[in-house]
Amino acid sequence: MILGRREILALMESGDIRIEPFDEKALGPASYDVALGSEFRIFDKTPEFIDIRSDDFDPAQYGDLVDVIDGPLEIQPGQLVLGVTKERITLSERVMGWISGRSRFARIGLLVHVSSNLIQPGVSNRQILEIVNLSPRPIRLWPGVRIAQVVFEEVKGAELGPVDRRYFYQTHP
What we know:
The chain is mainly beta. Helices cover 8% and strands 38% of the residues. The protein has a single domain (5-44, 62-154), classed as Distorted Sandwich (Deoxyuridine 5'-Triphosphate Nucleotidohydrolase, Chain A). The two termini are 30 Å apart.
């Protein structure tokens, strides 16, 4: 079941959902708008293959981490960068989330979350954003803009057993 505003606030009160920093103005009827942080991973442009052979694949080896404290970050048409939310989201095993871009940015060709939009129960991290510019024009991204939204759902029967927790506590793209 998708959680509405009242239920999100109740689960924040119980500690099943934590959003830090929290801004009540970002809480809508059934979602929370998250802001863009200042850190990005910029991928190297090279004709060399990215060779994916196992689950141990690490995308960090193909790009550089940059911090644009005073912003903006310019992304060119067709370019992919990884960003990170300003907020840390912590969920109990009773709650999961889905992160997606906001329609106002999608309408100009900015994809904010290309894939892997599931936020697992038990995480405590800043969400990584897979940002792609599909616009024919360059786009400037400014830290602090509410760029994506998270929808929360109740989870029944979850077990935080043998799962890959590599990304459960991430803080950098």
